[in-house]
Design goal:
The structure holds two protein chains of two kinds.
Chain A (H helix, E strand, L loop, with lengths): L3 H8 L9 E10 L12 E8 L4 E7 L11 E8 L11 E7 L3
Chain B lengths: L2 E8 L10 H16 L8 E5 L3 H5 L4 H8 L6 E4 L5 H14 L5 E8 L6 H8 L5 H5 L4 H16 L3 H15 L13 H6 L2 E3 L2 E2 L9 E8 L11 E10 L14 H14 L8 E3 L5 H10 L8 H7 L10 E2 L4 H5 L3 H17 L12 E8 L4 E8 L1
Parallel strand pairs in B: 2-3, 2-4, 9-10, 9-11
Antiparallel strand pairs in B: 1-7, 1-8, 4-7, 5-6, 8-12, 11-12
Helix pairs in contact in B: 4-14, 8-11, 8-12
The chains are: A mainly beta, B alpha/beta.
Amino acid sequence: MSSPIKAWREQKKIAPYLRIKGKVVSWTIVRVPPHGFVSDAPYVVAIVETNTKKRLISQIVDVFDQKIKSGDQVESVYRRQKRPDEEGVIYYGLKFRLLYD
Amino acid sequence: MNIQILGAATTKFGEHWHKSLRDLIREACLETVKDAGIKNDKIEAVYIGNMLSGILSGQEQLGPMVAEELGLRVPAIRIEAACASGGLAMHEAISSIESGKYETVLVVGAEKMTDRPQEMVAMALMAAGSDAERQSGATFPALYALMARAHMEKYGTTEKQLAAVAVKNHYHASLNGKAHYPFPIKSEQVLASSKIADPLKLLDCSGISDGASAVIITSKLKIKNEKLKIRIIACEVATDTLGLAQRESLTQLKATKIAGQKAYQRAGVRPKDIDVAELHDCFTIAEIIALEDLGFYQKGEAGPQVLKGATKLGAKGLITNTSGGLKACGHPVGATGVKQIVEITKQLRGEGEKKQVEGAKVGLCHNVGGTGATAVVTILTN
């Protein structure tokens, strides 16, 4: 369950992960989403390995035509997460986007 | 280990609109007491496995609910480990007998899931994952899809091999009157079903079911018919990180491997000694990974073997998920681990009816919580 206090606490952990690069280890497209994400589907969820060898689970945004493959290079961005609940808090957090060369 | 199964029963799994969680628990318990042929007052303690009653039904403290239904005032303990709640409840009940505290214990697994819309159930199930997984908008199909893709890319596992797991388990379920989906399906239907989380499709996924299962285990009471004597010879648990991303590998469940090895050692049996197994196939890829992690096949070999029909009723060697598995018997999450024990008990008693594995001597149950944060492996023999 989410709460405003939890959102505030989580925000403090995000800064070190901004603008970090990595690669896609495995990915999927969520077509049947959970509560809070219904209006965003379909969206890509992936396991990303950062350049410092840390693995994270995250959405990959701005993927056109759902074209993505394992090994693709990505970088982290700060984005809105799920839809606000009853308390009205808008949740923000990490997502990744593809790096095109 | 001197513990026997005295009674075992399950409700039909399905969408029980007219039955509450309490109704399902009562039905499973009364049937089990009848199967055991004992009076309720022989039960010294109750363990119940359940995951979602708080979130979906607003009901916690399930222990006393079970005791109340049986007119008992004994210790009653609720155990939670997501989809392994039932298996872990078995483990705790067995441990309580091994400790010498009790001699005869009732174990129940129960879940009521169909009172809520699908996206609420999907969100509730994500309580089994990590914070990061919930924030990413992942669902359980999505997490297993990440494993499926990694397995496909590493070992060449195909969507057709995944579909073969569903086809086999639906065939078994078509012989099981207690199954949620008791009808056969074709590979083409699985491959053409709508995508849930690529590469997993609707018919790669277990359904959302209601149901309850129960067993009575004892170290003391004598079973009336010696021929129906079933012994538990191992029950082992292992854990791993809550989140999938932190795991050593995406193509194996370390918890399954550890629990399996410990259970084989404790029971003094090898994978090739197992005649019949209920494996945790919440998604088709999960059965393939389990077949490998439990030592039945080398990594990458389970998919081709399942496609060949090696684990289907009628084949020689190990037969898996005669109940229909989570895929086709249904998956009321807290009930599943106990239902597996009920199914293997019936098989070892020779009461498997149309789905009986001829001459089954040793059976194994494999129950997983989350994406592999908890794994329980139980071995039984007749």
